[in-house]
Design goal:
The complex is a heterodimer of chains A (223) and B (341).
Chain A (H helix, E strand, L loop, with lengths): L3 H13 L3 H14 L3 H21 L5 H18 L13 E6 L7 H12 L3 E4 L6 H11 L3 E5 L6 H13 L7 E5 L5 H6 L4 E2 L3 H21 L1
Helix pairs in contact in A: 1-2, 1-3, 1-4, 2-4, 3-4, 5-9, 6-7
Chain B lengths: L5 H9 L21 H7 L10 H15 L4 E3 L5 H5 L3 E3 L8 E4 L13 H4 L5 H14 L5 E6 L1 H8 L2 H10 L1 H24 L4 E5 L5 H25 L5 E5 L7 H4 L6 E4 L5 H7 L5 E5 L1 H6 L2 H13 L4 E4 L9 H13 L2
Parallel strand pairs in B: 1-4, 4-5, 5-6, 6-7, 7-8, 8-9
Antiparallel strand pairs in B: 2-3
Helix pairs in contact in B: 2-3, 3-6, 7-8, 7-9, 8-9, 9-10, 14-15
């Protein structure tokens, strides 16, 4: 019988090696042995996905590999999730994500979603070609803290601005951090439309979201 | 070479012969050159124009006259192929070009092989061919460029793109089968265009980039299927320009192996270095489309002059123009090139 640590390492390797079956198998072993499911996700699958993010940034892995690694991660998560022991103190931060109205290119959005989920966020994925108000409605309904907007098309960039402007008009701007990215997007554009941040890669988006979440937790604690 | 026509100049460059100055063109397709300004002026607007030969003829002719580009470019989007192959198209609006609403197939293995000779009689292909024929007939000195969506991008427009990218590793057999089929279809489509009088074909394959695929898969999939298509078009005695999106560092070693007559690139690529370092004979590009959309005429003029002094063989925008690009800005670019001769 494998030790808990060995299983964590195995899950890590399964994700990095794009091995969906192995990930599912080891996740079942974790459950059978009665080890902590949450720890297996965090110490095994998530850490593996962090490594994948690194390999992607170092241009060892590219998008097909990243997608296959994330499939392996989800195969494990699907089995472990029902066995997570809920702790009241564990806050899961929520992100609403989508491709803005006027665009249907969603590869980039999907990558960000993967990296956010592997970083522990609950992601509400609205899909592609999404109206500005729908982002706000979803954020309100789900109690999200971050709204993440993506587009590949210059013609859809004004839709990002619309989300920020609607938040301002509806007096909700301070409730949410708006994070934007995509092929034609730049830090300057983010500044111009008064978004909170621009991310150039999926891994960077996850890092920025973590910083937002940490800042919010700090603010809550000091309040 | 005082009386050299735009068509002859482009042909000479693609044949690596000397010219008085570079041609300045915008091929259409992914590298759309139609802007809202011009659509309003000529009364042929997105999205209705995409379906009508007469409207396409009017719009492309007006774009050419108004911008000064030394070519006509049709169509204005990358969805013609996917529509024929069964995907659902969202035709967009006045400002936004058509895009894929839903890919037809979930997996590569679901794609049936149809007779490509019958397929090219469907969708908008006939209208595009007719528009090109009419423009070419009326303007024998200016080339009509037909723009195709490359094999990987077309495949990822009929099979769910996330799945297709994974299948490049997980189901190579079916991924190759779909790519082969798509390339056969594209060759047949190119044949229709060439027979209708399009003297030059451009291929843009934005899913087949180094950034998305990485160097190994770019070599395994992008290069061979681009070459299959390019070779098929060369067999029709027609030159081909291939546009590659995104950064090129990771795939530089593959560039010389692409059989195109010219390679066009995105704005962040240093074309001068690519030409010197990668054994790419003829390069095209790569004026920032953001500059064209947002900058002042003096900035656009300086950027164009930089490309001229770098001895870029064909001057063009680096990507598709935003439809809200002012026609006067484009005019600054084309005039700067023309005055250099």
């Amino acid at each position: 019988m494998a030790t808990e640590q060995e299983l964590h390492q195995g899950l890590y390797d399964a994700v990095v090696d794009m091995d969906e079956e192995q990930s599912a198998e080891l996740a079942s072993e974790v459950v059978k042995a009665g080890y902590d499911a949450y720890a297996a996700i965090e110490q095994g699958l998530s850490k593996g996905m962090d490594k994948v993010g690194e390999l992607y940034e170092q241009e060892e892995y590219f998008i097909p590999e990243l997608l296959l690694c994330s499939d392996a991660m989800y195969a494990g998560i699907d089995i472990l999730k029902p066995h997570i022991v809920r702790e009241e103190t564990r806050v899961q931060h929520k992100v609403v994500i989508g491709v803005v109205e006027g665009d249907t290119h969603d590869i980039g959005k999907n990558l960000v979603k993967i990296m956010l989920e592997s970083a522990g966020f609950e992601v509400i994925d609205l899909g592609r070609d999404i109206k500005a108000q729908a982002f706000i409605d979803a954020a309100e309904e789900n109690g999200a803290e971050i709204i993440a907007l993506s587009t590949l098309m210059t013609t859809a960039m004004p839709s990002m601005q619309e989300v920020v402007e609607l938040l301002e008009k509806q007096d909700k701007r301070d409730k949410y951090k708006v994070l934007i990215g995509g092929g034609p997007i730049s830090p300057n554009f983010a500044k111009k439309i008064r978004a909170d941040a621009y991310a150039s890669t999926a891994a960077e988006a996850a890092r920025i979201a973590k910083d937002f979440a940490a800042a919010e937790e700090a603010a809550l604690q000091s309040a | 070479m005082n009386d050299i026509s735009p068509k002859e100049r482009l042909f000479r460059v693609l044949e690596k012969k000397t010219v008085d100055r570079p041609p300045v063109i915008c091929p259409g397709g992914m590298m759309n050159s139609a802007t809202v300004d011009v659509m309003k002026e000529c009364g042929a607007s997105f999205p209705t124009v995409h379906h009508s030969a007469e409207a396409m003829e009017r719009l492309s002719s007006s774009v050419q006259t108004r911008t000064g580009f030394e070519n006509f470019g049709i169509p204005y989007c990358m969805t013609v192929e996917a529509e024929v192959l069964g995907s659902e198209i969202d035709f967009g609006n006045e400002e936004c070009e058509p895009k894929i609403a839903k890919e037809r197939y979930e997996f590569s293995r679901d794609v049936p092989i149809h007779d490509v000779k019958k397929l090219v009689k469907e969708g908008r292909i006939e209208a595009i061919a007719k528009a090109g024929y009419e423009i070419g007939r009326k303007n024998p000195d200016i080339p009509v460029i037909g723009s195709l969506t490359g094999p990987v991008s077309t495949a990822a427009s009929i099979v769910d793109p996330m799945t297709f990218l994974k299948e490049l590793r997980r189901d190579k057999e079916n991924a190759n089968r779909v790519l082969d089929y798509v390339a056969d279809f594209l060759i047949e489509y190119a044949k229709v265009l060439v027979e209708s009088g399009f003297p030059v074909i451009t291929i843009a394959d934005p899913t087949a980039t180094g950034e998305i695929l990485g160097p190994k898969m770019f070599g395994d999939y992008a290069v061979p299927y681009l070459n299959k298509l390019v070779d098929g078009i060369h067999a029709l005695d027609t030159p081909v320009i291939v546009h590659i999106c995104g950064r090129l560092e990771s795939v530089e070693k593959h560039l010389a192996g692409i059989h195109a007559d010219a390679i066009s690139t995105d704005a962040m690529v240093n074309l001068k270095n690519i030409k010197a370092a990668c054994g790419v004979g003829t390069v095209m590009g790569n004026l920032s489309t953001f500059a064209l959309q947002l900058q002042t005429p003096d900035v656009i003029q300086r950027a164009t002059e930089k490309l001229l002094s770098d001895k870029i063989d064909i001057i063009s925008p680096a990507c598709g123009l935003s439809t809200t690009t002012p026609a006067d800005n484009i005019r600054v670019m084309t005039e700067t090139v023309k005055q250099s001769g």
